[in-house]
Amino acid sequence: MRTILIILKKEFRQIFRSRPMLLVILAMPVIQLLILSNAADYEIKQLRLAIEDFDKSRLSAELIEDFTFNEWFELTALDLNQEKNDELLAKDEVEAIIAIEAGFEKNLQQDRTGNIQIRLNAIDGATAEVAASYIAGVINKWAVQEQKQVRSRYLYNPELNYKSYMVPGILVMLVSVIGIILTALNIVREKEIGTQEQINVTPIRKYEYILGKLIPMLIIGIVEFSLGLILAIVVFGVPHLGNILLLYVYLFFYLVVMCGIGLFISTVAGNQQQALFLAFFMMMIFLFLSGLFAPIESMPDWAKVMTKFVPLSYFIRVMRSIMLKGSGFLELQMELVVLIVMGIIMQTIAVLNYRKR
Amino acid sequence: MAEKIIETVNLTKRFGDFTAVDAISFEVNKGEIFGFLGANGAGKTTAMKMLCGLLLPTSGQATVAGYDVYRQSEKIKLNIGYMSQKFSLFSDLTVWENIEFYAGIYRMPRQAIITRGEKLLQDLELASQKRRLIGALPLGIRQKLAFSIAIIHEPRLVFLDEPTGGVDPITRRRFWEMIYNATERGITVFVTTHYMDEAEYCDRISMMVDGKIKGLDTPANLKLQFKEKSMFDVFLQLAREKSHEAL
Fold first, then answer.
1. What is the pTM of this model?
2. Into how many domains does chain A fold?
């Protein structure tokens, strides 16, 4: 126990002595959140539309007018030729097609359901999703004026504020970087300068050394996360409907997984360069399969299967659920189990692979 | 018979097809300065790493301070000090923080760390440099400090792997004075070097060529045995033999 404290003392002295490092740790959440949450904004301006009005009634004309006078939309085609419109969609000349069925006005006046079909090009899943929600928004507004009911499927993040949607995910990315890259580099650096060898001839036990290295990373990760969380809530106004403490429980187990990966990388890498490449390689795959930038739902099946092995995808889901939906532990049990199992597996592999000789 | 602190029998280390250390057998007496000489790549460092518990031998036996290198490497580590050719202090920590760290992981009591640490600084005339970063000190001072820290826990045996590489002659001289002081305190010194003048300072020397020990005796006896005037010539003779074999 005393040995671990001695290692911790040394680690923290080194971290606090390195000003550039401190700066990176403190500035990273601010800069990343500011840049990424704005850059990764799926808001779409000038959405090009094709409208097929099979009803040609007063109500349908009003609805079309709402789209025409809306700054977010640009009516590109008003044509009943479905094939031609589909072609426009395929050629990316319009983002969406709205078809108003024949008898739309009559049905509504007789208190029956009036149908509007929306066709989207979902190659870019994120854009399609946003487009659909914008269109639904216009229809909703129109329906309120006409005193008709439209049911919206968008229950969470009701204003469709993409910052609210992105920021929790970006926070996850941030702590992942800390966990993997900082851990890997910290250990490999000692290998490189030779202090690792010196430590290996001392009576430090393997578990003492590993704990002495991982605990500071866990603490930095938690501090980093807290900074980001405060920013997210105070500056970006991201809602936090759920239990923040629960968030930290998940964060802890998530960081254990990430540090395990970092430790593993440090055992296979011979120098900092190799470690950095390996860490980046893994981060890239993790990010693309995390559901942060592209929704998992729109991925091909094989990719969906792969996301099951990506710890980020679980923690991002947890973050969004707890913050935006106010989910409790009961709805997120599976995620906790998966994260704990992943943590145990990663740490075991890493520790077995770490050799004192 | 002097007490033996290291005993090896046919100690061997192979990396794939390459035999770095080829069945070496030798003994080191308690309290002596044992020099391990050889050209670069002769297998000195590999042999030393096996004795320190940094590398597992391929075959053969070895005990260090009475403990077996295969099964009791952690016990060995408590009883030895080690200073490698790579720089081993933390350059982003101060002189005192390094002392505190290394003394601490050898499980020295807090009070002992303070008294021995202060004594160490006085001996090295570094008391005023206590709070300076290691990175800001000249190489010679860092090497002397690294040696003092390697034996701060009063080990029974200290391994020095080319400790004076890149150091000026005056500092090397001072360094050897420190080594003599350590032996007076009862610490056995196992040192690798390829400075032949340093070889003369050792009580006994083993000459390694291509993973094998080609000569093992006091410097005076080795010179007699190989009929040469200096250790430098003994070394050259052995090295030439090797290059003739290669031809």
1. 0.76
2. 2
